[in-house]
Amino acid sequence: MSDKPKMMFAIEHLDSSIAHLNSAMEVLSSVILDLQKGADFVTKYRDSLIKTVEETGGNMTQAIESQIRDFIPKRLKDGKDQEVQGRQGYQVPEPPTRE
Asked: What pTM value is reported for the model?
């Protein structure tokens, strides 16, 4: 056994505990920041939906169509991009090549 006093062992363990707690707080702080960003996004999206409904006079069909029109990139509206194949979701089309 070591010649260190038991109080020194206790202090070393407490120092280690403090380091682990600080590390855990950093991780939790990052998670909380991500949650705040998520909440901000949802709030902005909600406000956007309310604004759209107000602008369309409560016509839900028109409001939904308006949201879809706002979501679709302008290049897709113009029909310049390829159609998405299969059920893989939205894929970024290749840029046009110069000939």
From this structure: 0.48
